[in-house]
Amino acid sequence: MTSRTLRIAMNGITGRMGYRQHLVRSILPIRDQGGVTLEDGTRLQVEPILVGRNADKVKELADLHGVEHWTTDADSVIDDPTVDVYFDAQVTSRRYAALTAAMKAGKHIFTEKPTAETLAEAIDLARLRESTGVTAGVVHDKLYLPGLVKLRRLVDEGFFGRILSLRGEFGYWVFEGDVQEAQRPSWNYRKEDGGGIVVDMFCHWNYVLEGILGTVRTVNAQAVTHIPTRWDEQGREYAATADDAAYGIFEIETPGGDPVVAQINSSWAVRVFRDELVEFQVDGTHGSAVAGLRNCVAQQRAHTPKPVWNPDLPVTEPFREQWLPVPANADLDNGFKLQWEEFLRDVAAGRTHRFDLLSAARGVQLAELGLQSSAEGRRLPVPEITL
Ligand SMILES: NC(=O)c1ccc[n+]([C@@H]2O[C@H](COP(=O)([O-])OP(=O)(O)OC[C@H]3O[C@@H](n4cnc5c(N)ncnc54)[C@H](O)[C@@H]3O)[C@@H](O)[C@H]2O)c1
User: Fold this and answer.
1) Cβ within 8 Å of residue 192, ≥6 positions away
2) Beta carbon of 89 within 6 Å of any ligand 1 atom
3) Sorted alphabetically, which Pfam families does this protein's record hold (predicted)?
4) CA of 88 to the centre of ligand 1 (A)
5) Is the N or the C terminus of the chain less surrounded, counting Cβ atoms within 10 Å?
6) Atom of ligand 1 nearest to the CA of 54
7) Within the chain, which residue ranges are assigned CATH 3.40.50.720?
8) What is the distance in A from the centroid of ligand 1 to the CA of 317?
9) Which of 11, 17, 139 to mutate to test the pocket of ligand 1 (most atoms within 8 A of CB)?
């Protein structure tokens, strides 16, 4: 029944994202379910090849998960004509060179974000994809999450009427590493190693805003380093040179031409008083909704309470109880796996993937402009990128 097997070289699988989300939650389950079904009913199977710098670690993972092929020589898999896809979840600073080499060798690529450290490099990658004609996919995982899928459906159904605003709250406390170990890698907190919350999160916010509302036209951000000293994986104190919180305001233009104001707080120095680690509230003339990673609740105009401001009285309404859960009405799998499956079908069909290197370049652009806006203390327009 299997029509074809795609060989996928996976670099960065000893890391947090590469291991958990891409290997364990995506490629191995896809392999173990016998691949994906193509439009014509045939099966497309996957065969991972694990790639990393440390032979012991890579071999251990290969043995643990029954993966036959592994190597420490990334160049050799890129040069290997039997390899179809190169996947990259290395630290961001190594990505541009790796993706460039892979596409030049004719490999299809699937990659973590951000695709590059600078907009110029991100555009370069998008141009290289066009000239090589390979299929490229960039992780846009948030758009595949059940909460955001439900939110998008409310937009498609016209639930909101005219959309007015979006407010997003992302973050949690990342331990400094002195008493309790930090739950994120230390390079995330060093600017010189490609760290920083703006670089990390604004590329997500760009595709979330595009995917839910429309095109981002302006950005006004304030990036700060709240915690200037942290302790690394070896327990050594280091200067946290990168921003660990960013307060951003974005102007969006919907496909219908309406302006929407989006405000998103991102922070690794905030304690959670929310139902989920990220939440987006969308308010419109006819209704509002709040979506997290998994859940989404909504309130229609007809069900909207009429609070009256009176600080002398206790709160009169059980506000949180007045929202209705939005059902999934579908079996929504892990977001990374769903995007992988879509990407693999695109590779088999020889077509482009909808979340490609140009969309990724717009994400890198928003991060770059966010940092510039913060440094200059002003709102900046977001120009359209053409290749
Ligand atoms: N989609 C998401 O939600 C999401 C979330 C977190 C991180 N990411 C992205 O995934 C990528 C990896 O992030 P992570 O949190 O898994 O990082 P990590 O530090 O846990 O993993 C980094 C990987 O790169 C490898 N590596 C190669 N060269 C290296 C070098 N010189 N120094 C250190 N490591 C090197 C490591 O061995 C490891 O396999 C980043 O680009 C990050 O932006 C995406």
Assistant:
1) 241
2) yes
3) GFO_IDH_MocA, GFO_IDH_MocA_C3
4) 9
5) N
6) 37
7) 3-141+335-355
8) 46
9) 17
How do 215-224 and 245-253 pair as beta strands?
Answer: antiparallel
| Predicted confidence (pLDDT) per residue in 98-109, tens digit | 999 999 999 999
Verify whether ligand 1 is closer than 6 Å to residue 14 (CB atom).
yes
Beta carbon of 195 within 6 Å of any ligand 1 atom: no
* pLDDT tens digits along 140-179: 999 999 999 999 999 999 999 999 999 999 999 999 999 9
Question: What is the rounded CA–CA span in Å between residue 137 and residue 346?
Answer: 9
For the CA of 92, the nearest atom of ligand 1: 41
Mutate to test the pocket of ligand 1, among 71, 90, 198 (most ligand atoms within 8 A of CB): 90
Neighbour count for residue 300 (Cβ, 10 Å)? 15
Length of the chain: 387
CATH 3.30.360.10 domain position(s) in the chain: 146-330
CATH for 3-141+335-355 (3.40.50.1110, 3.40.50.1820, 3.30.450.20, 3.40.50.720): 3.40.50.720
Q: Which two tokens stand for residue 355?
A: 């979340």
Amino acid at position 28, single letter: L
| pLDDT beyond 90 at 333 | no
Q: 35-58: per-residue pLDDT in tens?
A: 999 999 999 999 999 999 999 999
Handedness of CA 237, 242, 247, 253 (dihedral sign): negative
332 lines ligand 1 (CB under 6 A): no
* pLDDT grade for 2, boundaries at 50, 70 and 90: low
* CATH class of the domain comprising 146-330: alpha beta
pTM over 0.90: yes
pLDDT, average across residues 250-260: 96
